[in-house]
Amino acid sequence: MASQCGRSHPLALLLSPPVLLFLLLCLVGDASAVKRDANGTCKSSANTKCQPGVMLPVWQPSLNLSFGDKLARAVVYFSCLIYCFLGVSIIADRFMAAIEVITSKEKDVVVKMKDGTKQVVSVRIWNETVSNLTLMALGSSAPEILLSIIEICGKKFEAGDLGPGTIVGSAAFNLFIIIGLCVYVIPNGEIRRIKHLLVFFVTASFSVFAYLWMYMIIDIFSPGRVQVWEAVLTFAFFPLTVLLAYVADTKIFFKSFLKKHYTARSAKAYQDGELEMQNPETAVVDPSAVDTDLSDFEKTRHDYIEILREIRKKHPNADPKMLEEMAQMEVLNRGPKSRAFYRMQATRQLTGSGNVIKKSKVERRLSVAVEEQEEDPNLQKIFFDPGHYTVMENVGTFSLTVSRSGGDLNAVVRLDYHTVDGTATAGDDYVAAQGTLVFHSGEKHCQFSLTIIDDDVFEEDEHFYVELSNIRVEGGDPETRVELADPIRATIMVLDDDHAGIFHFEVTEATVHEAIGEAEFKVQRSSGARGIVRLPFKTVDGTAKGDGNDFDSVKDYLEFHNDETEKTIKIRIIDDEEYEKNEFFFIELGDPILMKRVGHHLEEDRECSQIDEGGRPKLGEFVKIKVTIIESTEFKVMMKMAEPTKMERRSCPLVWTTGWLCFTVSISGIGLLTALIGDLASSFGCTVGLTDAVTAITFVALGTSLPDTFASKVAAIGDSNADSSVGNVTGSNAVNVFLGIGVAWSIAAIYHWSNGSEFLVESGSLGFSVTVFCVEALVAIMIMMLRRLKPVGGELGGPFVPKVITTTVFLGLWVTYIILSALENYCYIDGF
Q1: Which structural domain range is residue 723 located in?
Q2: Does 102 reside within a domain?
Q3: In total, how many domains does the chain have?
């Protein structure tokens, strides 16, 4: 990138905030500070003349424009830039969705347990670190990478300023602004630490080395030109980075290779140093190698049970099926998420297109049919279907289902089952059971029953397990192998029904018309209906007045008898036959009172009798309802408006096979828009007097990095660690150089070599900008590592004062980088 030094137009200084500081330095500086040669001319040319782009011609006339014309053109170019940046973000959303589909593929692995039984475990094919540094990094950095490649091709394989400048400027924005923001947005007192520290060390080292390598190419090895070996080696550093990060993640050199083992991340089995893969879908492996996957499965099971308890407390009126659906969604929300998830979430928040969780679930369900892995025809899997049951304590006896799939179904299969205590204990909460299930020839499903013991004592919701074991096969195809597949353990959640009840309205607002006469409002009793409970209630005036004006004031109580779950409050609404605006009042519930029968009378049960303190009646979430009274004529209009219309919004989701077609189409669309962005940015810069170098490190870098900013912010707040928000920044910065510069310069260097010429790249502003960034990047990484020590304790968050100091320092590093780069580019300070 040649250093294009010269005076910028005043309009550029008004439109570029970083250059405002540059203007201040110009006002107090001296004209002699400009670098000039012996003839008094700026060494690096002050040319900001508009040139034809790859897609856009020069807007004619281009010379002798008035200030008003330049302002109008700048507004048009800038508006088009913003529109194209938004378009790239939207296409990148589809791009990242395709990457998520590709990298989330799983395969089945048969694990031999210590007791000799075998279990099928589903593991991801893609290693998380590898996917983050390859497809994920390509997805988040595609505009910068493609801009560099397109610029080289569009300039007939000559070096340009916009592509390399955008890559360096984007790296500075990512490292200083994004991480600084992530440090600040963590709630006070909370911290986020990098979990995979070795991976971070690798990516952070390469993120600095990548830019040092650029400097060495253009200023040390072959100043002013790029040779083929330098460009190709730049690209070769990309797979090397991925390999070293993978080694750091899996700690592969710390493991023994003397015994056969399998890791879900490496997808390799070794035996005495030799690769052994009988069937990649059904490799029999040592369970020690998949301890991580099994422990994660048990942790997810435990989290699911805890979440189910929490949700039941918040939504006591939900039935077991609804509770399970809500718990599954909450587990999905709390689980670890990929970089693609956060990038898509940020884009959809910016464009107002909804929540990525719901869409990704639908997309995944739609793509199941096209993503099914080839099953081993000789493998038969046996598993619980489903693996989780939620039942009420008074359910009595219920059935569990065990299913089998694949292989020869004509074989007769026997296996044992037995119950295992959790928080629920056999004899007190359920009847212990064990026995043998028999799949007869042709049967796919087999059921057995369990019995829950119902008592009259309040208890917390409890759970226990049922496990499968000891498979025996009789007859059938001798080549068929029968294995237990996940889930081999079913969890039974028992919801207690001995609570005296949680009392609440169905809704928080209700509308009645004035002529209704007597309005009814339901009060529900959920999470138990044990005993007799009196529930006080009263009306409260709002704009509608009681005492016979708009409604009859009421202060009374409802009496719920044993096992009674619903009562109705009746309020008389008065129609005064006069037009009034809509008015409202409230009905409030008071604290419920547990009663007991003494003789023929009821009195408050202060000793709790058979119900302990935890089971006493309580108020739920909706304890106050707002009642709006509307005119009868308005009620008719409202009913008319509520009728369904003939117009229906329809959506036609398109599922592309395995994500690769969507991947290809999306990256092509991003490439076209990126070419247009390059032309618009260059035209905008020359119109306002900015060089391509300054335009690249400010406007273009900011525009391409904005979705990543929001994605990292959401990841910082939502994740329990800093890997998605911080670790991926350094990885992306390294990949930008190795792909964006490596591919572009390799194409140009090979082209010139084949034609007997040289690919010239002047150091100038690029060398200076890279040097400033590398020095500041080392400072930033040192600060991040120091924050891991006490009293902060983590890269992100911490006490308020350290947060503010860190964010301020990082912001200062970015501003310093912009100012120094701009000053050098306009020849106010000496570069290289």
Answers
A1: 66-251+656-826
A2: yes
A3: 3
Residues 582 and 625 in one domain: yes
Band of the pLDDT at 44, cuts 50, 70, 90?
very low
Same domain, 725 and 620: no
Decide which of 498 and 381 is more confident.
381
Question: What is the 3-state secondary structure of 697-719?
Answer: HHHHHHHHHHHHHHHHHHHHHHC
424 and 473 assigned to the same domain: yes
Contact between residue 305 and residue 389 where contact means Cβ atoms under 8 Å apart: no
Residues 562 and 454 in one domain: no
Task: Give 308-331 pLDDT, tens digit per residue.
Answer: 666 666 665 566 666 666 766 666
Domain for residue 343, yes or no? Answer: no
Q: Is the pLDDT of residue 250 over 50?
A: yes
Same domain, 236 and 92: yes
d(CA 554, CA 569): 10
Interatomic CA distance for residues 136 and 126, integer angstroms: 12
Pairing of strands 270-271, 274-275: antiparallel
Q: Which two tokens stand for residue 707?
A: 């979705």
User: For residue 472, what are its two tokens?
Assistant: 């025996």
What is the distance between the alpha carbons of residues 388 and 124, in angstroms, rounded to a whole number? Answer: 23
Q: Which residues contact 376 (CB under 8 A, 6 or more apart)?
A: 279, 281, 282, 406
- Residues 716, 798, single domain; the answer is yes
User: Token pair for residue 717?
Assistant: 């707040």
Same domain, residue pair 617 and 674: no
Per-residue confidence (pLDDT) for residue 777, from 0 to 100: 94
Evaluate whether 131 touches 338 at the Cβ level (below 8 Å). Answer: yes
Tokens coding 169: 């400027």
Say if residue 759's pLDDT is above 90: yes
pLDDT tens digit string along 78-91?
A: 999 889 888 888 88
Whether pTM exceeds 0.85:
no
Residues comprising the chain, all counted: 832
CATH number at residue 560: 2.60.40.2030
CA distance 53 to 81: 14
pLDDT at 645 > cutoff 60: no
| pLDDT higher than threshold 60 for residue 640 | no
On whether both 478 and 559 belong to a single domain, the answer is no
Q: Tokens at residue 604, please?
A: 């408050």
Shortest CA distance to 169 belongs to which of 806, 770, 771, 782?
Answer: 770
For the chain, what percentages of helix, strand and coil (3-state, to nearest 5) are there?
Answer: 45, 20, 30
Closest residue by Cα to residue 162 from 687, 684, 708, 811:
684
Which ranges of 576-700 does DSSP label H, i.e. alpha helix? 632-641, 660-688, 692-695
